[in-house]
Design a protein that fits this description.
This is COG complex component COG2 C-terminal domain-containing protein. By secondary structure, this protein is mostly helical. 74% of the residues lie in helices and 0% in strands.
């Protein structure tokens, strides 16, 4: 193999003979070819540059053409709107002012659609000289449109004409002025009512004047906002096909006017100078807020309400820290006065031996008393409770450490002294002159101190244990019950396209949800006080009802959406299938679902009564019942119509 390679290497020089001459012969044609390629490349570049120039000109022309077309659209839209409004010929008998309200609403809706296109093209044509000339006419159209809308919306509300109101609100939404419509409703519809009801004279006219005022404010929504809520989908009975979305009049129109009136015309409401009156006014006001939240059509509306600036402003107006300081002074002063009296005997029949211990426990109980304690101040009252116990402990420590032992006195058995050595100068004056020191404690006093401390320790631990057990018990019951109440979301699946009969009794999940509560009553009766059992049930049912309300609300909303989707599908098809479905005169699946949910809630109310409570004891139950009753009425009306 190596020999072959060597032979090739030796012959290499022989094989290359004449190669340079051959290469020289190729150089000339290759040079010519190179010149031709460069020439062609130059020609192609010139053509490309010419094409780019033409394309740039064409693109510029196209842009100018689009700008011209936009300006043409602007001018045509302005002329079209002006023609409809007859702004230049007020004597025309077909003018907007001479049209019927319903026709005017339809015309305004047409104008709004055209105006929306006008606004779009005007924004795209920004900076064009012709647009500046047309802009005053656009401003005139805008003013005329808003003025006409305001007048027509007010007329529709005053005459309760749902078609006019729907056209107006849809028009406001088309031109992206929903906030203007809500502000108008607030000024025209809400404010006059609030000016009459929210007055200082009304509140002071009777002892329960504040409650009466809030009651009248709550009446405003069902009596005066029914039409608006029906059009904007704030009620279950609203027809989704005709709903105008994007509005929340309760949050953006009613609530701000209420708060503006309360804060502006009843400022004494927030004055914490009198703690008892402040407590009553605060509790009544917070109850009003909870009831107003229940009038909101959905959980999303409640969230918008709580995020509203006026909602935060109203809560911040209540100076709870000042109220607590006043209560702090009252409670702390009471204990300090008792400490000043020293180791005086407690009244006959007291659970303690010493007056100071009796007062201490009374102060601790006052921190959590019904007419003093407020939930937002829980952390402050808890701190005060610990401070009271700490002050009492410091007092006893001081008494025990600064008082000489009983052996230093000649008479170990003495009546209880009226003061302690740590709190008054009288102590030194009443001291045993023979000992020359502070008054000694008797054995009886030491026994009383020990007995009170022992009993107080038991009671404090009892309270802590009760609090922990209460929380654990209610949390345990709530978790077990809510797990089954969530099955309400499965009700639509049981009736949708299953041909099930009309429901006549509550769902099985309701018995499962209530079983832990009935078991609690059975296991606790005779073992725990009835008042404790009722408290457990009340707290648990309140939590469960609140979550159940959210579930039922979501189910009814989804049922309505599904119902509307099916309606639109049938209207779009217009086939024999639609006729066949319409021939069914029995209750629809949606009606069965609503009836089932109503039966479930009514059954819950019956079981609450069997447990020894009243449905009115459960804060959210009335709202839950109203929710399903409205659904039941809708189902009944549908059956009657079929």
């Amino acid at each position: 193999m190596n020999i072959l390679y060597y032979a090739d290497f030796v012959n290499l020089s022989t094989n290359l003979v004449g190669m340079d001459k051959a290469l020289n012969q190729l150089s000339v044609p290759l040079g010519q070819l190179r010149e031709e390629v460069l020439s062609l490349r130059s020609a192609v570049n010139e053509v490309i540059q010419a094409i780019d120039t033409q394309l740039s000109k064409q693109d510029d022309i196209q842009k100018k053409k689009i700008s011209v077309l936009r300006l043409i659209h602007v001018v045509r839209s302005v002329e079209k709107i002006e023609k409809i409004l007859h702004s230049q010929n007020a004597k025309d008998t077909t003018s907007l002012e001479s049209s019927s309200p319903l026709l005017a609403g339809q015309i305004l809706e047409r104008i709004a659609t055209e105006f929306n296109q006008l606004q779009f093209h005007a924004v795209q044509s920004k900076g064009m000289p012709l647009l500046d000339k047309v802009r005053p006419r656009i401003a005139g159209i805008t003013a005329m449109l808003q003025q006409s809308l305001e007048g027509l919306l007010i007329q529709g509300l005053q005459t309760s004409n749902v078609d006019i109101v729907r056209h107006c609100l849809r028009t406001y939404a088309t031109i992206d002025k929903t906030r203007d419509a809500e502000a108008l409703v607030g000024q025209v519809l809400v404010k006059p009512y609030m000016d009459q009801v929210i007055t200082e004279q009304f509140v002071k006219s009777s002892p329960n004047g504040l409650q009466l005022m809030y009651a009248k404010l709550l009446e405003f929504v069902p009596h005066h906002c029914r039409l608006l809520r029906e059009v904007t989908g704030g009620t279950i009975s609203s027809d989704k096909a005709d709903i105008v979305p994007g509005y929340d009049f309760l949050v953006n129109s009613v609530w701000p006017e209420i708060i503006k009136g309360v804060e502006g015309r009843i400022p004494f409401l927030f004055n914490p100078g009198n703690p008892d009156a402040f407590y009553e006014r605060y509790c009544i006001s917070m109850d009003f807020v909870r009831k107003f939240e229940r009038q909101c059509g959905s959980q999303a509306s409640v969230k918008r309400l709580r995020a509203h600036a006026s909602y935060q402003s109203f809560h911040n107006k209540w100076n709870l820290p000042v109220y607590f300081q006043l209560r702090y002074k009252e409670i702390a002063a009471c204990l300090e006065n008792a400490i000043t009296e020293g180791l005086g005997a407690a009244p006959v029949g007291s659970r303690y031996r010493l007056q100071v211990t009796e007062v201490l426990w009374s102060c601790v109980c006052r921190c959590w008393a019904e007419h003093i304690y407020l939930p937002p101040l829980a952390h402050r009252f808890w701190k005060l409770t610990l401070q009271l116990l700490s002050r009492y402990a410091a007092f006893l420590t001081e008494v025990l450490t600064k008082t000489p032992p009983p052996e230093s006195t000649k008479d170990p058995v003495r009546p209880l002294p009226s003061s302690a050595s740590s709190t008054s100068s009288r102590t030194s004056q009443d001291a045993d002159s023979e000992s020359g020191g502070p008054t000694a404690l008797s054995t009886k006093q030491l026994v009383f101190i020990a007995a009170d401390v022992d009993h107080l320790q038991e009671q404090v631990l009892e309270v802590l244990v009760v609090i922990i057990v209460y929380n654990r018990m209610t949390q345990h019951l709530t978790e077990r019950s809510v797990r089954f109440l969530k099955n309400a979301s499965e009700v639509p699946r049981l009736y949708r396209r299953t041909n099930k009969e009309v429901p006549t009794r509550a769902s099985a999940y309701m018995d499962n949800a209530l079983r832990p509560l009935h078991q609690l009553v059975t296991d606790s009766t005779g073992v725990v006080k009835d008042s404790i059992i009722q408290q457990w049930l009340r707290v648990t049912l309140s939590d469960c009802t609140h979550r159940y309300f959210e579930t039922i609300s979501d189910v009814l909303s989804s049922v309505k959406k599904m119902e509307e989707s099916l309606k639109r599908l049938k209207q779009a098809r217009k086939t024999a299938t639609t006729s066949t479905a319409g021939a069914n005169t029995g209750p629809s699946d949606d009606s069965k679902i609503r009836l089932q949910l109503a039966l479930d809630v009514e059954y819950l109310g019956e079981q609450i009564q069997k447990m020894g409570l009243q449905p009115s004891d459960i804060p959210m139950f009335s709202s839950l019942l109203d929710l399903v009753q409205e659904a039941r009425d809708l189902a009944t009306a549908e059956q009657a119509g079929s």
